[in-house]
Write a structure and sequence with these properties.
14 strands, 242 residues, mainly beta, 10% helix, six-stranded antiparallel beta sheet
Length: 242
């Protein structure tokens, strides 16, 4: 430790010696450790608060606030549409006149930072249904139960048409082959939940009426061998300041 050759009272001169290094000066104030800790903590808190407020102020309209992404390689599970039992999907959605099944591995959970943000979810879903007269609807978990979104302007289906079985958010499966040709369905869903509460979005496979149609994720419907295509499903999302 350096030797201090001075009276450290306020206003006194000091000189420290460490080898050939000399530091001299005048004491402007003396504080004990408690006073020093309080001063440092207060300065840090003021800086953090100012920085956080500055962060909020600098998001411009249209700027991305946060992003996330996901991927699933699941390819051994078939998702079979069934009647609602109140927990597999909401009984309030029976007015579509069809059976549903949630494609659960592609759920997206988001906690918006701003209540007025726009949420954009980009899904790239690979797989194949057992019948091409089927499609996807967008849903969210309500008390843990997948429920088709009906918020005005952000519906998980086409709001300009009647609530019927063939009204989907996307249906692009027709290719005259329902068992050996997988398809990549690329679609983007926008929502404005007007809340900063955590929200989980999901995709519902809608059957051809009240039938047990099946969706096979990441492979062809009858894909069992090495000659049948397999793939990967991915998604990414962003919160956009409004």
């Amino acid at each position: 430790m350096p030797d201090i050759e001075a009276d450290i009272a306020k206003g006194g001169d000091f000189k420290t010696i460490e080898g050939n290094l000399y530091v001299t000066g005048r004491i402007s104030g003396v504080y004990d450790k408690g006073q020093t800790d309080v001063g440092i903590t207060s300065s840090i808190n003021n800086y953090v608060t100012e920085y956080q407020n500055k962060e909020e102020r600098t998001f411009r309209v249209g700027e991305t606030v946060q992003k996330g992404y996901g991927r699933t390689n699941v390819s051994t599970t078939r998702y079979t549409a069934a009647a609602s039992n109140g927990s597999n999907w909401s009984s309030s959605d029976t007015d579509f006149g069809q059976y549903f099944v949630e494609i659960s591995p592609i759920r997206v959970t988001i906690t918006p930072l701003f209540a007025d943000s726009l949420i954009a979810i980009h899904w790239n879903v690979f797989g194949e249904p057992s019948d091409h007269n089927t499609g996807f609807k967008i849903a969210e978990l309500v008390n843990g139960v997948p429920t088709i979104i009906r918020r005005s302007g952000y519906e998980g289906y086409n709001s300009q048409f009647s609530i019927v079985e063939y009204n989907h958010f996307i249906s692009d499966f027709y290719d005259a082959d329902s068992d050996t040709t997988g398809r990549m369905s690329n679609f983007v869903y926008f929502d404005k939940p007007n809340s900063t509460d955590e929200r989980t979005y999901t995709v519902m496979f809608g059957a051809n009426g009240q039938t047990a149609n099946i969706y096979t994720l990441n492979r062809t419907y009858n894909g069992t061998g090495t000659n049948d295509e397999v793939g990967v499903t991915t998604w990414w999302w962003e919160e956009i300041k409004q």
